[in-house]
Design brief:
357 residues; alpha+beta; Aminopeptidase; four-stranded antiparallel beta sheet; 9 helices; 16 strands
């Protein structure tokens, strides 16, 4: 899996090709497919990319430029092998891909950017151009099949364009499988989650009676303080279990600080904390995108574990999501027991592989 920063480029930066005017409403979609092989060109696409991502109602934080541009900067290794799909001057599709080869395995694997620490992955295709984009992308991948050995498209949700039927190809074998699901609460039908919400509020009142505290939300002024607390508290928990946490390296910490700044600027950061005597003792970090809240990481001071500060923090985040009109609270990948006590249900994720015969 991609693990190191830096990368080699297939091509130098080039300007986007000239495109013709026209509307998909008056003619069949016509797609220009641009190979994006350098970081500079990927960054140049940010404005068009963000517009496309913002238009798609089911796109998650993990397909946004606010996540993937920092991801490539921190974790990208190998060859950037992305495709921008244009109809005239309009970006109607983006397939953020890379070719990765590990030091111990010579197999050249074609991955979606974000593979490894992103809970949902996918291409971005405008619905009006979905079929045309899919055909154009697979044609380009096939045309450049001497550059890769295996395609491994992971963390795909039901309905992903990458799970659509692929035109039969004599030289390819298509494989599919399920991966560890994400686990999410339907906020309109909490089920047992309503019991947990009331219980967390009871825990909160009891804690307030013994150790006065306040809930806070990260701001531009306090973001570094919140990030410091997340790194300290998250890693404390994992060290206790003799495991590596998600923030165990300087690269991980730098990546999430950059992502947090980007999402805060966009008004989509979910970062709450419990402050007690001027010190954050629990935090929960994630993203608010359209009708869903995505809970990515959390941590709490183990000294207060018996006071259920973890449940208190989740309860606060869930309550705020309900009050804000969100429909889903997504705990993301993993089947930890506590998620199901909140009434969460599995959200299937799939992998599609394309292997050259």
């Amino acid at each position: 899996m991609p693990v190191a920063a830096g990368g080699l480029n297939l091509q130098t930066g080039t300007a986007a090709p000239e495109r013709t005017n026209g509307s998909a409403a008056t003619r069949a979609p016509s797609i220009d497919c641009e190979l994006v092989g350098c970081s500079l060109r990927l960054e140049e696409l940010e404005e068009d990319w963000r517009e496309l991502w913002s238009w798609l109602p089911d796109a998650t934080p993990f397909q946004s430029p606010d996540w993937l541009l920092p991801w490539w900067k921190h974790y990208g290794e190998g060859q950037l092998f992305s495709f921008a799909l244009w109809d005239g001057a309009r970006l109607v599709g983006l397939a953020p891909l890379q070719i990765f080869r590990s030091a111990v395995d010579p197999t050249r694997r074609l991955f979606l950017l974000g593979t490894g620490n992103s809970d949902y992955l996918d291409v971005l295709f405008h619905p009006a151009w979905r079929g045309a984009c899919g055909n154009a992308l697979m044609a380009e991948i096939g045309k450049r099949s001497d550059c890769w050995d295996v395609c491994s498209f992971q963390r795909l949700r039901r309905g992903s364009p990458l799970l659509d039927d692929i035109v039969e190809h004599d030289a390819w074998r298509v494989e599919e499988g399920e991966q560890v699901p994400c686990v999410a609460i339907d906020l309109h039908h909490l089920g047992h989650g309503s019991v947990m919400l009331r219980r967390s509020q009871s825990y909160a009142r009891k804690l307030q009676g013994v150790h006065p505290y306040s809930f806070e939300e990260a701001s531009a002024a306090t973001l570094d303080d919140f990030s410091d607390a997340l790194e300290r508290l998250h890693q404390q928990r994992w060290r206790e279990e003799s495991c590596r946490g998600a923030l165990s390296t300087a690269r991980d910490r730098s990546f999430h600080r950059m992502v947090a700044r980007q999402f805060l600027k966009a008004g989509m950061l979910m970062f709450y904390g419990i402050r007690m005597a001027r010190r954050l003792i629990a935090v929960i970090y994630g993203f608010r995108v359209r009708d869903a809240v995505y809970s990515y990481l959390s941590g709490f001071d183990l000294e207060y574990a018996r006071k259920s500060v973890g449940a208190i923090t989740i309860g606060h985040a869930v309550q705020r999501a309900i009050e804000s009109g969100h429909q889903v609270f997504d705990f993301l990948q993993g089947r930890e027991k506590y998620k199901y006590t909140w009434g969460a249900r599995d959200q299937a994720c799939f992998v599609r592989g394309i292997v050259k015969e």
